[in-house]
């Protein structure tokens, strides 16, 4: 019979290697404990009266749900028990210093996609861990390559932890009988050749020429430039899209678009794009803004947004290539996001 180690046992050996890895393991285990509790609350759904609005507004202007507040509290309380110098959370305007002398900094989206809960669709917690550099706060403004681990918990039909650690991406499933995460997928690799894309197509009229060009090529199917028929998926939940791509490949796009407030995309660099990009790259996939590798980008502010294209490497490179040749629909306020030369307009 296959032996499936529990998360704690699996991380025991790396934790013995050096103090930084031991600290990283302590953070992962603290978050896993909080995720188990959050999974229980989410699974209770209407029975736990978590669906309502809390009355608060997060730093991005979104209305906070009660469950957003619960998730934020659970995760930050857990981080207080671990060697964490500072935390950036989607639900807090400014980074919070926990223990300035501790070796790690954590950026976290405590409950991504919480609006999906009303429809019983998977949601998740996304986290990014990096060693503290000069001081706790400036650590968050280093590029995403500074991360030494990242992951996401997905609260869906199964509760799952996708963990990027030690250059490898593993998957753990919460066993409801024991209340423990157990290793169920080792060294995950993004399948390289899946003709499947995910994008919120209702925004088509707001897209740049590059994004329209790429999606139009996919829609043209076997008779078009790409020479094959494509399938489309859109869940509207980043963790669920990332998990699907890890399992069966394809590409996900949340591009910048011409709507007010979307000139730099929708997703946040520190606690959405950076950790998901680390997962993708360590699983053999790729993540780009269309112009740059996500992991080479640095945040200018805690809640900075970024366009995100992630998935099978070839597809991400194809989207990058289209960005190099296509005229923009609009200019970003402070960065030349799109080149000028019309192919698709
Ligand atoms: P929140 O972080 O505000 O929960 O939003 C993130 C998210 O739900 C992603 O999970 C998803 O990819 C995206 O927003 C969906 O956005 P849209 O509703 O614009 O398609």
TrEMBL record:
<dbReference type="Pfam" id="PF18913">
    <property type="entry name" value="FBPase_C"/>
</dbReference>
<feature type="binding site">
    <location>
        <position position="272"/>
    </location>
    <ligand>
        <name>Mg(2+) 2</name>
    </ligand>
</feature>
<dbReference type="GO" id="GO:0030388">
    <property type="term" value="P:fructose 1,6-bisphosphate metabolic process"/>
</dbReference>
<dbReference type="GO" id="GO:0005986">
    <property type="term" value="P:sucrose biosynthetic process"/>
</dbReference>
<dbReference type="InterPro" id="IPR020548">
    <property type="entry name" value="Fructose_bisphosphatase_AS"/>
</dbReference>
<dbReference type="GO" id="GO:0005829">
    <property type="term" value="C:cytosol"/>
</dbReference>
<keyword id="KW-0378">Hydrolase</keyword>
<comment type="subunit">
    <text>Homotetramer.</text>
</comment>
<keyword id="KW-0479">Metal-binding</keyword>
<feature type="binding site">
    <location>
        <position position="109"/>
    </location>
    <ligand>
        <name>Mg(2+) 1</name>
    </ligand>
</feature>
<feature type="binding site">
    <location>
        <position position="111"/>
    </location>
    <ligand>
        <name>Mg(2+) 1</name>
    </ligand>
</feature>
<feature type="domain" description="Fructose-1-6-bisphosphatase class I N-terminal">
    <location>
        <begin position="24"/>
        <end position="184"/>
    </location>
</feature>
<keyword id="KW-0119">Carbohydrate metabolism</keyword>
<feature type="binding site">
    <location>
        <position position="90"/>
    </location>
    <ligand>
        <name>Mg(2+) 1</name>
    </ligand>
</feature>
<feature type="domain" description="Fructose-1-6-bisphosphatase class 1 C-terminal">
    <location>
        <begin position="191"/>
        <end position="322"/>
    </location>
</feature>
<dbReference type="InterPro" id="IPR000146">
    <property type="entry name" value="FBPase_class-1"/>
</dbReference>
<comment type="pathway">
    <text>Carbohydrate biosynthesis; Calvin cycle.</text>
</comment>
<dbReference type="GO" id="GO:0006000">
    <property type="term" value="P:fructose metabolic process"/>
</dbReference>
<keyword id="KW-0963">Cytoplasm</keyword>
<dbReference type="GO" id="GO:0006002">
    <property type="term" value="P:fructose 6-phosphate metabolic process"/>
</dbReference>
<keyword id="KW-0460">Magnesium</keyword>
<dbReference type="GO" id="GO:0042132">
    <property type="term" value="F:fructose 1,6-bisphosphate 1-phosphatase activity"/>
</dbReference>
<dbReference type="GO" id="GO:0000287">
    <property type="term" value="F:magnesium ion binding"/>
</dbReference>
<protein>
    <recommendedName>
        <fullName>Fructose-1,6-bisphosphatase class 1</fullName>
        <ecNumber>3.1.3.11</ecNumber>
    </recommendedName>
</protein>
<dbReference type="GO" id="GO:0006094">
    <property type="term" value="P:gluconeogenesis"/>
</dbReference>
<dbReference type="InterPro" id="IPR033391">
    <property type="entry name" value="FBPase_N"/>
</dbReference>
<feature type="binding site">
    <location>
        <position position="200"/>
    </location>
    <ligand>
        <name>substrate</name>
    </ligand>
</feature>
<comment type="similarity">
    <text>Belongs to the FBPase class 1 family.</text>
</comment>
<feature type="binding site">
    <location>
        <position position="112"/>
    </location>
    <ligand>
        <name>Mg(2+) 2</name>
    </ligand>
</feature>
<dbReference type="InterPro" id="IPR044015">
    <property type="entry name" value="FBPase_C_dom"/>
</dbReference>
<dbReference type="Pfam" id="PF00316">
    <property type="entry name" value="FBPase"/>
</dbReference>
<dbReference type="InterPro" id="IPR028343">
    <property type="entry name" value="FBPtase"/>
</dbReference>
<feature type="binding site">
    <location>
        <position position="109"/>
    </location>
    <ligand>
        <name>Mg(2+) 2</name>
    </ligand>
</feature>
């Amino acid at each position: 019979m296959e032996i499936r180690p529990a998360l704690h046992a699996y991380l025991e050996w790396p934790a013995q290697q050096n103090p930084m890895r031991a600290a990283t393991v302590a953070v992962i285990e603290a978050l896993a404990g909080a995720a188990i509790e959050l999974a229980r609350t989410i699974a209770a759904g209407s029975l736990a009266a978590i669906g309502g609005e809390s009355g608060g507004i997060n730093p991005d202007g979104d209305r906070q749900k009660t469950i957003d507040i619960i998730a934020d509290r659970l995760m930050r309380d857990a981080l207080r028990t671990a060697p964490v110098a500072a935390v950036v959370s989607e639900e807090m305007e400014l980074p919070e210093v926990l223990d300035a002398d501790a070796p790690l900094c954590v950026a976290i989206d405590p409950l991504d996609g919480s609006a999906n809960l009303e429809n019983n669709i998977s949601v998740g917690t996304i986290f990014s861990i990096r060693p503290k550099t000069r001081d706790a706060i400036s650590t968050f403004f280093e590029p995403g390559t500074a991360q030494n681990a990242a992951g996401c918990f997905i609260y869906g039909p199964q509760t799952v932890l996708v963990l990027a650690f030690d250059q490898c991406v593993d998957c753990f499933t919460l066993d409801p009988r024991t209340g423990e995460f157990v290793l169920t997928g080792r060294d995950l690799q993004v399948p390289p050749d899946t003709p499947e894309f995910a994008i919120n197509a209702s925004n088509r009229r707001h897209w740049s020429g590059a994004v329209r060009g790429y999606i139009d090529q996919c829609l043209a199917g076997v008779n078009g430039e790409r020479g094959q028929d494509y399938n489309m998926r859109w869940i509207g939940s980043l963790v669920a899209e990332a998990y699907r791509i890890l399992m069966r490949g394809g590409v996900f796009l949340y591009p910048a678009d011409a709507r007010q407030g979307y000139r730099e995309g929708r997703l946040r660099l520190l606690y959405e794009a950076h950790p998901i990009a680390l997962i993708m790259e360590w699983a053999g996939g790729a993540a780009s803004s269309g112009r740059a590798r996500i992991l080479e980008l640095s945040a200018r502010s805690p809640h900075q947004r970024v366009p995100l294209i992630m998935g099978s490497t070839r597809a991400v490179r194809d989207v990058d290539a289209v960005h190099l040749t296509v005229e923009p629909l609009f200019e970003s306020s402070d960065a030349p996001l799109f080149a000028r030369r019309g192919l698709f307009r």
